[in-house]
Amino acid sequence: MSEHVPTFPDLKDKAVLITGGGSGIGAALTEGFAAQGSKVAFIDVAGAPSRELADRLAGISRHAPLFIQADLTDLEALKQAVAQAESAHGPARVLINNAALDDRHELLEITGDYWDANHAINLRPVAFTAQAVAPGMIAAGGGAIVNFTSTSYMLNIGAMPAYTAAKAGIVGLTKGLAGRLGPDGIRVNAIAPGWVMTERQKKLWVTEEGLAAMIERQCLKRPIEPDDMVGPCLFLASNASAMITAQVLIADGGMM
């Protein structure tokens, strides 16, 4: 974790729930909130790497993170995971909707089933995880929801139309949730990362030429790392952003 990430005292001992928190950006967020002293629960479908992350952080964190294995496309499993997190830590005061799957796909070949399955991962859980935590968050006096969208839908990328549609949908959902939950003291914002160099990205899609071209378009001339998403997320989750809601924070090194 970057030594430049500040401490937000109001996040200490606060119940935080993160989806997709076992790898990539999500793992950086899990570690980042744990370093704040938060009571972190994270949901992920992948068992081994998530358990390794939870075990590693258990010995160095104020509160050992709780890993909950669940498939977010199963709405009943999602509700049970939220209930398990609440049983352990109390109602979530912070929800980070991070889980996503950015598989590439060809418009002329996708089926209705593929489209539905893609949105069942990339869009639907954002709404239903918010729905699941909302009653507890309202009863606890409010909180913050941070949804991860992407700059990909802003860039006219043609290689993943279902994914970019879902990520655009998250922006509309963020604004709708902010309007509905604001009177209950819940702020809802989104973060739109640029091309973050997760292990998945580097394994599947990063080339030397492609990365150089992206950095050339950025104002800040270095690769974007998962840790770079931690500071913006902590800020939007904390009281430092007390009057910020229904906004999209672009964290892409100035490319846009």
TrEMBL record:
Keywords: Oxidoreductase. PROSITE patterns: ADH_SHORT (PS00061). InterPro entries: NAD(P)-bd_dom_sf, Sc_DH/Rdtase_CS, SDR_fam. Belongs to the short-chain dehydrogenases/reductases (SDR) family. This is SDR family oxidoreductase.
